Amino acid sequence: MTAAQHQSAQSEIAAGYASEGAAVELGAVLVDGVVEPTARVRLPLATLNRHGLVAGATGTGKTKTLQLIAEQLSAAGVPVVMADVKGDLSGLSRAGSANDRVAKRAADTGDDWAPRARPTRFLSLGTGGAGVPVRATITSFGPILLSKVLGLNDTQESTLGLIFHWADTRALPLLDTKDLRSVITHLTSEEGKEDLKGLGGVSPATAGVILRALVNLEAQGGDTFFGEPELDPRDLMLQESGQGVITLLELAELQARPALFSTFLMWLLAELFQVLPEAGDLDRPKLVFFFDEAHLLFADASKAFLEQITQTVKLIRSKGVGVFFCTQLPTDVPNAVLSQLGARVQHALRAFTPEDQTALAKTVKTYPTTPHYALDKALTSLGTGEAVVTVLSETGAPTPVAWTRLRAPRSLMDTIGEDAIRQAAQSSDLHGKYAGTIDRESAYEKLTARVAPPDDEAPPPAASEKDEPGLVDKVLGNSAVKSFLRSAASALGREITRGLFGTARKRR
After folding, report:
1. Taking the model in full, what pTM does it have?
2. How far, in Å, CA of 134 to CA of 264, rounded?
3. Quick check: helix, strand or coil at residue 391?
4. Which regions of 342-430 does DSSP assign to beta strands (E)?
5. Quick one: 88 exposed, middle or buried, by C-beta within 10 A (0-12, 13-18, 19+)?
6. Where in the chain is the domain with CATH 3.40.50.300?
7. Domain 3-135+228-434 belongs to what architecture?
8. Mean pLDDT per 10-residue segment, the chain (508 residues)
């Protein structure tokens, strides 16, 4: 390709990214290994509620791309929520450091680079992490999301839905895992079976599977996540000195439960949809969500769960919220969701195996045709910090495919360390609101009270041999009540035992 052809191709591509409104500056166009600093690749803020995808193999620069986009959104006053699974994004809270590599990248991309920190808050799912602990109640999580966390099949998910329905009709709040366990225990008792007449039943085998899954979740720290105070999603939509606040969510001690992490983000998105008003067309989104490790969200998902994700992503843009999925392969995202992602930032892919080659071919088909690149070769030749990009223009049309050398983030491209994160969290205004736990009366307490006599109740008078059995004798002699008492006592015993051993583990 001649120099004139280079310039023509670069100009043609850059013209497709010309933006009259505010935009995220991604980088500069590269053709045949030659980068032109004046040929800019931009992501218009007005189109960010059309969602996006950041994909690529490990080590190709995805995390730095997320950091680059997030810090510019913050600068534009847009709050950001990000899953910081590996702790690499905490550097957003500190100004970056100048060095030769950063200077070279700034020259390549026409960037007037200067170090800059952004307002950042740190949250952790449950207790035990460095961030402010956040929680959700079992009730608000719902049976579909909870089934994903517990790894239930469709039949078990249906049974869990019945359990939630029964608890709701009886005004039994399911706030934490012990509430759910007590309801399941009750519904498999003789009295519980009577309660479920006309609604179906809960088979002991299915109940056993759900209870075992709950026990496993608790053993891995999940019981510290479910409960109150529940996170108010509006606390994620804050500004500080005109900048959008970046909220980083870490997995804390729930590393063995990555599905809980991704599903919690989905719960947050659904909660935002409920509380936000319709927004119409905006010049910039109200909030942008980043789902890192998005494959965890879709792996082994039930049909109902996938339908809920698709519907939420489709409708949430009318509330002014943008969603970016971040994963290694675009094929990790179902077609129904992938078709709604207007912006694509694709880092390098590997093609070492037949499966890799199939994924590469599918990825190429998701991009507009281009005369400037052989995409199958380009996607395996991208350098670190480079990506193939196409976004929606302000008119809603896809922009030309651009091999892009991405800008360097202006914040610190490293972790700030657990101690610094903990200190920042403790000084946050959210710490006083969410650090302490609340254990108000809920299903567990109400079901226990139904079978436990009041402490101040006087013992019944002794009956003579000729006396008829009293009311208390009749009630306690009822087989259904006996069964329920045994079930409740067993559940209470397990709760006490779990508490004792949990305390012992903490002391060790």
Report:
1. 0.84
2. 10
3. coil
4. 343-346, 386-390, 402-406
5. middle
6. 3-135+228-434
7. 3-Layer(aba) Sandwich (3.40)
8. 76 85 94 90 94 92 95 97 85 95 95 97 86 93 92 92 92 94 90 74 88 89 88 94 94 63 87 90 93 82 86 92 92 90 94 88 89 92 94 90 96 93 94 92 90 54 44 40 40 37 36
Q: What value, to the nearest 5°, has the Cα angle with vertex 318 and ends 316 and 320?
A: 80
Contact 287, 237 (CB under 8 A): yes
Give the total residue count for the chain. Answer: 508
Q: Measure the CA angle with vertex 478, ends 477 and 480; round to 5°.
A: 140
SS3 408: coil
CA atoms 253, 255, 257, 262: torsion sign = positive
What 3 state SS string does 105-141 have?
HHHHHCCCCCCCCCCEEEEEECCCCCCEEEEECHHHH
Give the list of residues 6+ apart from residue 46 with CB closer than 8 angstroms, or none.
Answer: 21, 22, 281, 282, 283, 284, 394
CA distance 428 to 453: 45
Between strands 246-250 and 80-83, the pairing is parallel
Token readout for 139 is 């009730």
Distance CA 182, CA 364 (A): 52
